[in-house]
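COURSE: Structural Biology Practicum
ASSIGNMENT: Worksheet 4, Part C
STUDENT ID: 0417
INSTRUCTIONS: Below are two proteins. For each, the amino acid sequence is given first, followed by its structure token string. Answer the questions at the end about the second protein only.

PROTEIN I
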Amino acid sequence: MSKLGELGAKLHHGEVGYDFVKNRKLWYGISILITITAIVGLAVRGLHMGIEFQGGAVFTTPKNTSVSVSQAEEHAETASGHDAIVQKLGDGSLRIQIAGIDTGTSDQIKKELSEDLRVDAEQINAELVGPSWGDQIANKAWQGLGIFLVLVVIYLAIAFEWRMALAAFVALIHDITITVGIYALVGFEVTPGTVIGLLTILGYSLYDTVVVFDSLKEQTKDITKQNRWTYAEIANRSINSTLVRSVNTTVVALLPVAGLLFIGGGVLGAGMLNDISLSLFVGLAAGAYSSIFIATPLVADLKEREPQMKALKKRVLAKRAQAASKGESVEDTDAHADGPYDDDPEDAAPAVVGPRNQPASRTRGRGRPSGKRR
């Protein structure tokens, strides 16, 4: 078995682990700091909306145009009086985007571009996008996002509980805010590809969160029938038991997306790849972070406010104090439990407690998994 596989097995069985829930205030602080930075960037720089959202014209020159990108950008801005975005495509042609112009203006700009770029005007392809169509696209995108979030909350509230639904919703908002803020800070253009990327990473983030929630739901079954573990400790065990799987799936997903972003977008200069790959790259990383460091610790915070969980925590701490005063471990104390709710009942032991070794000197309950008398 590989070292990573051994680590995954130890994490799954609770033999090793990191206390994510205990340090949750640190993770909350980091997330708040990143989110505030994203919001400030969004407020100061704003989003660079693509031509599909604000209307304008797109001019595509013939293949192997000899003019450089900077020269074409200068010519386009001089001809239109507006900011222009110029991208060199793989076949050597140029894609020139100019926002805020109408049909009449585009014809004049096309004529001037043909002279400046020394290209026949008939060979320049012009596509017009009306601002009303861009508004429709933006409205549909917001509607789709809103419907998605509402359905997610309803599903999680039914499948799990409202606290998990709330935690997942907070994690999703966290991922969206960070991704949009990065777009504002970097200055990448927001296109329909960006919207597709956002919806994709929301689904991925939700998948990662639900995996942890499912493990947590299973391990907290009949949690009040034992006195060894608090809800927060079992939540932490759920994170650790799925940690390797979350990291593996995130890394595997990020590798091809990184190829699209840094090679396809940076080296080849494919503009659309930049739009969708940046949202995927940032969103996948933020989603993995939020599912581990935000969603589950937040569920533990909400659950431990319940009277039952407060009482459970009080019993667990009292039992540990009693065992410490007698110089015994919790396992030693478990061997004397004869009450109606044994600390590790047979039906609850697999869900909340990992394998443990009974003291060699004791013979009570030997041969039975529960450790009870025959």
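PROTEIN II
(use this one for the questions)
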Amino acid sequence: MNIEGMDYNTQREKLVLPEYGREIQRMVEHAVSIPDKTERQHCAETIIAIMDRMFPQGKQSPDYKNKLWDHLALMSDFKLDIDWPFDVNQVKKMADKPQPIDYPMTKIPVRHYGNMVFEIFDKLKTMEPGEERDELVRITANQMKRCLMQWSHGSADNEKVASDLARFTDGVIQLDLDTFKFEKINMHDLVEKKRKKK
């Protein structure tokens, strides 16, 4: 059954800026179709006045009027031939969809350490022994312990960290557990961080 005027919004043409509604979109389309430029200009100014009344809370922002004209340009698909009071060329750049970003698809042997920790392992393999490498080893070992605690519900073994560090740096880094001191990790802080992420 097809009743005129009883169609769903999902069946209609998608709105450019849904916050203004279908009626404003129709007004803009009508303004584009007006052959006389003076009348078209007057129609555009009227549409801006209506849009202005729809969102009075935005008037505090300094570029509010500029934004309304930008929105009008977007809704008309830049086909509205009028004397624009503001430069709307910047909006054309905003209207272009960004290029999709390639997602890194590198496989890592142990997911709970994450890709960045494995990048550090690669760096540690090539670093010269010294204070800088020692500091990076300290930071990495503590981060590995945190990762283990988060992923294994609080159980983190110092031997496991030392073993993994040696394994993933091809034996270059050997952690001496008799002299190395891990930072005290508060399980409560890790739980709080997890909650904040959710």
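ANSWER KEY EXCERPT:
Q1: Residues 71 and 181 are 59 Å apart (CA to CA).
Q2: The two ends are 46 Å apart (CA to CA).
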